[in-house]
Protein backbone atom coordinates (compact mmCIF):
# COMPACT_ATOMS: atom_id res chain seq x y z
CA UNK A 1 0.00 0.00 0.00
CA UNK A 2 2.78 2.38 0.91
CA UNK A 3 4.56 1.56 -2.33
CA UNK A 4 1.40 2.34 -4.32
CA UNK A 5 0.94 5.63 -2.49
CA UNK A 6 4.56 6.52 -3.10
CA UNK A 7 4.18 5.74 -6.80
CA UNK A 8 1.00 7.83 -6.97
CA UNK A 9 2.76 10.73 -5.26
CA UNK A 10 5.64 10.47 -7.71
CA UNK A 11 3.21 10.47 -10.66
CA UNK A 12 1.41 13.49 -9.22
CA UNK A 13 4.70 15.33 -8.77
CA UNK A 14 5.66 14.46 -12.36
CA UNK A 15 2.34 15.80 -13.68
CA UNK A 16 2.72 18.99 -11.66
CA UNK A 17 6.26 19.36 -12.98
CA UNK A 18 5.09 18.84 -16.57
CA UNK A 19 2.33 21.44 -16.14
CA UNK A 20 4.73 23.93 -14.57
CA UNK A 21 7.34 23.49 -17.27
CA UNK A 22 4.62 23.71 -19.93
CA UNK A 23 3.44 27.03 -18.50
CA UNK A 24 7.01 28.31 -18.27
CA UNK A 25 7.67 27.22 -21.85
CA UNK A 26 4.46 28.90 -23.02
CA UNK A 27 5.43 32.13 -21.26
CA UNK A 28 8.90 32.01 -22.79
CA UNK A 29 7.46 31.44 -26.28
CA UNK A 30 4.97 34.28 -25.76
CA UNK A 31 7.72 36.64 -24.61
CA UNK A 32 9.90 35.56 -27.55
CA UNK A 33 7.01 36.13 -29.95
CA UNK A 34 6.39 39.68 -28.70
CA UNK A 35 10.14 40.36 -28.71
CA UNK A 36 10.37 39.30 -32.35
CA UNK A 37 7.30 41.39 -33.17
CA UNK A 38 8.92 44.38 -31.46
CA UNK A 39 12.19 43.90 -33.34
CA UNK A 40 10.45 43.67 -36.73
CA UNK A 41 7.75 46.25 -35.95
CA UNK A 42 8.86 48.37 -38.90
CA UNK A 43 8.12 45.49 -41.26
CA UNK A 44 4.73 44.64 -39.75
CA UNK A 45 2.82 47.51 -41.36
CA UNK A 46 4.05 46.72 -44.90
CA UNK A 47 3.15 43.06 -44.32
CA UNK A 48 -0.36 44.00 -43.21
CA UNK A 49 -0.79 46.35 -46.17
CA UNK A 50 0.55 43.71 -48.56
CA UNK A 51 -1.79 41.05 -47.17
CA UNK A 52 -4.75 43.45 -47.38
CA UNK A 53 -4.01 44.35 -51.00
CA UNK A 54 -3.41 40.72 -51.93
CA UNK A 55 -6.72 39.60 -50.43
CA UNK A 56 -8.53 42.57 -51.96
CA UNK A 57 -7.24 41.94 -55.49
CA UNK A 58 -7.24 38.15 -55.32
CA UNK A 59 -10.76 37.68 -56.84
CA UNK A 60 -9.88 39.98 -59.76
CA UNK A 61 -6.58 38.17 -60.33
CA UNK A 62 -8.33 34.78 -60.30
CA UNK A 63 -10.89 36.07 -62.80
CA UNK A 64 -8.24 37.49 -65.14
CA UNK A 65 -6.07 34.40 -64.77
CA UNK A 66 -8.66 32.36 -66.67
CA UNK A 67 -7.77 34.28 -69.84
CA UNK A 68 -4.07 35.06 -69.34
CA UNK A 69 -0.97 34.19 -67.35
CA UNK A 70 -0.90 35.06 -63.66
CA UNK A 71 1.88 37.64 -64.13
CA UNK A 72 -0.25 39.63 -66.58
CA UNK A 73 -3.34 39.19 -64.39
CA UNK A 74 -1.49 40.60 -61.38
CA UNK A 75 -0.11 43.48 -63.48
CA UNK A 76 -3.54 44.48 -64.83
CA UNK A 77 -5.12 44.18 -61.37
CA UNK A 78 -2.41 46.42 -59.91
CA UNK A 79 -2.79 48.97 -62.70
CA UNK A 80 -6.53 49.19 -61.99
CA UNK A 81 -5.94 49.41 -58.24
CA UNK A 82 -3.16 52.02 -58.57
CA UNK A 83 -5.22 54.15 -60.95
CA UNK A 84 -8.24 54.08 -58.65
CA UNK A 85 -6.11 54.80 -55.57
CA UNK A 86 -4.21 57.75 -57.04
CA UNK A 87 -7.38 59.24 -58.54
CA UNK A 88 -9.04 59.06 -55.14
CA UNK A 89 -5.87 60.35 -53.47
CA UNK A 90 -5.49 63.45 -55.65
CA UNK A 91 -9.17 64.35 -55.39
CA UNK A 92 -9.67 63.56 -51.71
CA UNK A 93 -6.45 64.60 -49.97
CA UNK A 94 -6.50 68.36 -50.83
CA UNK A 95 -10.15 68.58 -49.77
CA UNK A 96 -9.55 66.64 -46.55
CA UNK A 97 -6.48 68.76 -45.68
CA UNK A 98 -8.35 72.04 -46.27
CA UNK A 99 -11.28 70.90 -44.14
CA UNK A 100 -8.89 69.69 -41.44
CA UNK A 101 -7.23 73.13 -41.23
CA UNK A 102 -10.63 74.80 -40.97
CA UNK A 103 -11.72 72.28 -38.33
CA UNK A 104 -8.65 73.07 -36.19
CA UNK A 105 -9.30 76.81 -36.50
CA UNK A 106 -12.88 76.34 -35.26
CA UNK A 107 -11.96 73.89 -32.51
CA UNK A 108 -12.10 76.50 -29.67
CA UNK A 109 -15.65 77.40 -30.74
CA UNK A 110 -16.69 73.75 -30.70
CA UNK A 111 -15.14 73.31 -27.26
CA UNK A 112 -17.05 76.36 -26.02
CA UNK A 113 -20.35 75.03 -27.38
CA UNK A 114 -19.67 71.63 -25.85
CA UNK A 115 -18.89 73.05 -22.41
CA UNK A 116 -22.02 75.23 -22.55
CA UNK A 117 -24.10 72.18 -23.30
CA UNK A 118 -22.46 70.15 -20.52
CA UNK A 119 -23.02 72.95 -17.99
CA UNK A 120 -26.63 73.28 -19.11
CA UNK A 121 -27.17 69.59 -18.48
CA UNK A 122 -25.43 69.87 -15.10
CA UNK A 123 -27.53 72.86 -14.06
CA UNK A 124 -30.75 71.02 -14.89
CA UNK A 125 -29.69 67.98 -12.92
CA UNK A 126 -30.92 68.34 -9.34
CA UNK A 127 -28.33 65.97 -7.88
CA UNK A 128 -25.36 67.56 -9.63
CA UNK A 129 -26.57 71.11 -8.95
CA UNK A 130 -26.43 70.42 -5.20
CA UNK A 131 -22.81 69.26 -5.36
CA UNK A 132 -21.58 72.83 -4.87
CA UNK A 133 -23.24 73.02 -1.47
CA UNK A 134 -21.76 69.69 -0.43
CA UNK A 135 -18.15 69.82 -1.63
CA UNK A 136 -17.62 73.56 -2.11
CA UNK A 137 -17.44 75.96 -5.03
CA UNK A 138 -13.85 75.12 -5.88
CA UNK A 139 -15.00 71.69 -7.05
CA UNK A 140 -18.14 72.90 -8.83
CA UNK A 141 -18.22 72.91 -12.65
CA UNK A 142 -16.72 75.97 -14.27
CA UNK A 143 -18.79 78.11 -16.59
CA UNK A 144 -18.43 77.62 -20.32
CA UNK A 145 -16.60 80.91 -20.87
CA UNK A 146 -13.90 79.96 -18.38
CA UNK A 147 -13.43 76.51 -19.90
CA UNK A 148 -13.36 77.75 -23.48
CA UNK A 149 -11.00 80.60 -22.52
CA UNK A 150 -8.73 78.05 -20.85
CA UNK A 151 -8.45 76.04 -24.06
CA UNK A 152 -7.97 79.18 -26.16
CA UNK A 153 -5.15 80.33 -23.86
CA UNK A 154 -3.70 76.83 -23.92
CA UNK A 155 -3.59 76.86 -27.71
CA UNK A 156 -2.25 80.41 -27.93
CA UNK A 157 0.44 80.09 -25.24
CA UNK A 158 1.81 76.83 -26.56
CA UNK A 159 2.25 77.65 -30.21
CA UNK A 160 5.83 76.41 -30.14
CA UNK A 161 4.86 73.06 -28.69
CA UNK A 162 1.98 72.88 -31.12
CA UNK A 163 4.29 73.53 -34.06
CA UNK A 164 6.72 70.94 -32.76
CA UNK A 165 3.87 68.48 -32.49
CA UNK A 166 2.78 69.26 -36.04
CA UNK A 167 6.36 68.77 -37.24
CA UNK A 168 6.64 65.42 -35.47
CA UNK A 169 3.26 64.43 -36.84
CA UNK A 170 4.35 65.38 -40.37
CA UNK A 171 7.49 63.28 -40.01
CA UNK A 172 5.41 60.35 -38.84
CA UNK A 173 3.13 60.74 -41.85
CA UNK A 174 6.14 60.78 -44.17
CA UNK A 175 7.50 57.63 -42.53
CA UNK A 176 4.14 55.93 -42.89
CA UNK A 177 3.96 56.92 -46.57
CA UNK A 178 7.45 55.51 -47.15
CA UNK A 179 6.49 52.29 -45.37
CA UNK A 180 3.29 52.02 -47.37
CA UNK A 181 5.30 52.13 -50.58
CA UNK A 182 6.88 48.80 -49.68
CA UNK A 183 3.51 47.31 -48.76
CA UNK A 184 2.09 47.37 -52.30
CA UNK A 185 5.41 46.15 -53.72
CA UNK A 186 5.36 43.22 -51.33
CA UNK A 187 1.73 42.63 -52.24
CA UNK A 188 2.79 42.06 -55.86
CA UNK A 189 5.04 39.18 -54.85
CA UNK A 190 2.36 37.71 -52.59
CA UNK A 191 -0.19 37.74 -55.41
CA UNK A 192 2.28 36.45 -57.97
CA UNK A 193 3.99 33.74 -55.91
CA UNK A 194 1.39 32.82 -53.28
CA UNK A 195 1.04 29.35 -54.80
CA UNK A 196 4.79 28.78 -54.73
CA UNK A 197 5.06 29.98 -51.13
CA UNK A 198 2.27 27.62 -50.16
CA UNK A 199 3.95 24.67 -51.87
CA UNK A 200 7.23 25.40 -50.11
CA UNK A 201 5.43 25.45 -46.76
CA UNK A 202 3.61 22.18 -47.51
CA UNK A 203 6.82 20.42 -48.59
CA UNK A 204 8.42 21.14 -45.23
CA UNK A 205 5.69 19.18 -43.43
CA UNK A 206 5.55 15.42 -43.15
CA UNK A 207 3.25 13.48 -45.48
CA UNK A 208 0.56 12.75 -42.87
CA UNK A 209 0.06 16.47 -42.14
CA UNK A 210 -0.02 17.75 -45.73
CA UNK A 211 -3.75 17.20 -46.30
CA UNK A 212 -4.62 18.81 -42.97
CA UNK A 213 -2.34 21.75 -43.72
CA UNK A 214 -3.91 22.20 -47.16
CA UNK A 215 -7.41 22.22 -45.69
CA UNK A 216 -6.37 24.62 -42.94
CA UNK A 217 -4.72 27.01 -45.40
CA UNK A 218 -7.81 26.90 -47.63
CA UNK A 219 -10.02 27.82 -44.70
CA UNK A 220 -7.72 30.60 -43.54
CA UNK A 221 -7.49 31.96 -47.07
CA UNK A 222 -11.25 31.91 -47.64
CA UNK A 223 -12.26 33.28 -44.24
CA UNK A 224 -9.43 35.83 -44.06
CA UNK A 225 -10.00 37.04 -47.61
CA UNK A 226 -13.74 37.46 -47.13
CA UNK A 227 -13.28 39.23 -43.81
CA UNK A 228 -10.69 41.71 -45.11
CA UNK A 229 -12.68 42.45 -48.28
CA UNK A 230 -15.87 42.88 -46.25
CA UNK A 231 -14.20 45.23 -43.76
CA UNK A 232 -12.72 47.40 -46.52
CA UNK A 233 -16.03 47.50 -48.40
CA UNK A 234 -17.97 48.37 -45.23
CA UNK A 235 -15.50 51.14 -44.37
CA UNK A 236 -15.82 52.63 -47.85
CA UNK A 237 -19.62 52.51 -47.67
CA UNK A 238 -19.62 54.03 -44.16
CA UNK A 239 -17.30 56.84 -45.28
CA UNK A 240 -19.38 57.67 -48.36
CA UNK A 241 -22.73 57.50 -46.54
CA UNK A 242 -21.45 59.61 -43.63
CA UNK A 243 -20.13 62.25 -46.02
CA UNK A 244 -23.41 62.36 -47.97
CA UNK A 245 -25.62 62.47 -44.87
CA UNK A 246 -23.52 65.16 -43.21
CA UNK A 247 -23.53 67.16 -46.45
CA UNK A 248 -27.34 66.93 -46.68
CA UNK A 249 -27.62 67.98 -43.03
CA UNK A 250 -25.36 70.95 -43.86
CA UNK A 251 -22.80 69.94 -41.26
CA UNK A 252 -19.35 71.48 -41.61
CA UNK A 253 -16.49 69.35 -42.99
CA UNK A 254 -18.60 66.44 -44.36
CA UNK A 255 -15.75 64.93 -46.40
CA UNK A 256 -13.27 65.08 -43.50
CA UNK A 257 -15.74 63.61 -41.01
CA UNK A 258 -16.79 60.88 -43.44
CA UNK A 259 -13.15 60.05 -44.13
CA UNK A 260 -12.42 59.78 -40.39
CA UNK A 261 -15.51 57.64 -39.82
CA UNK A 262 -14.56 55.30 -42.67
CA UNK A 263 -10.97 54.86 -41.52
CA UNK A 264 -11.86 54.34 -37.85
CA UNK A 265 -14.55 51.86 -38.81
CA UNK A 266 -11.70 49.43 -39.47
CA UNK A 267 -10.99 49.45 -35.72
CA UNK A 268 -13.18 46.85 -33.99
CA UNK A 269 -15.69 47.96 -31.32
CA UNK A 270 -14.26 51.40 -30.47
CA UNK A 271 -13.73 52.55 -34.07
CA UNK A 272 -17.33 53.64 -34.84
CA UNK A 273 -17.58 55.43 -31.47
CA UNK A 274 -14.31 57.31 -32.00
CA UNK A 275 -15.35 58.18 -35.54
CA UNK A 276 -18.57 59.78 -34.29
CA UNK A 277 -16.85 62.10 -31.79
CA UNK A 278 -15.56 64.71 -34.32
CA UNK A 279 -18.99 64.83 -35.99
CA UNK A 280 -20.69 65.30 -32.61
CA UNK A 281 -18.47 68.31 -31.86
CA UNK A 282 -19.64 70.15 -34.98
CA UNK A 283 -23.36 69.97 -34.18
Could you explain the architecture of this structure?
The protein contains eleven helices and no strands. It has 283 residues and is an all-alpha fold. It has three domains: 39 residues; 147 residues, no CATH class; 79 residues. α2 packs across α3, α2 packs across α8 and α2 packs across α9. The longest helix is centred in the middle third of the chain and has 46 residues. The chain is extended, with a radius of gyration of 28 Å.
- Arithmetic mean pLDDT: 75
Fraction of helical residues: over 70%
Count of DSSP H/I helices: 11
Whole-Å distance between the termini? 81 Å
Main sheet overview = none
Radius of gyration: 28 Å
Unreliable stretches: 134-142
- Element order, helices and strands? HHHHHHHHHHH
Domain tally: 3
Instruction: Report the count of strand segments.
Output: 0
Structural class based on helices, strands and sheet pairing: mainly alpha
Shape: extended
Q: Approximately how much beta-strand content do the residues carry?
A: under 5%
Amino acid sequence: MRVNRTLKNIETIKKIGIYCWSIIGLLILTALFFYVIYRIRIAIIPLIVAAGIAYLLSPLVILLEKKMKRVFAVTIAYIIFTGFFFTLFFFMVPLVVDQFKLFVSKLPLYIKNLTEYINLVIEKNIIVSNIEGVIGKEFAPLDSNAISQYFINLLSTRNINFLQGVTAFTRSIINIVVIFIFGPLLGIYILKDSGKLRNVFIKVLSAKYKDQANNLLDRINNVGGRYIRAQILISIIVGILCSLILFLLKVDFPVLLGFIAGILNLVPFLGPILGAIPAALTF
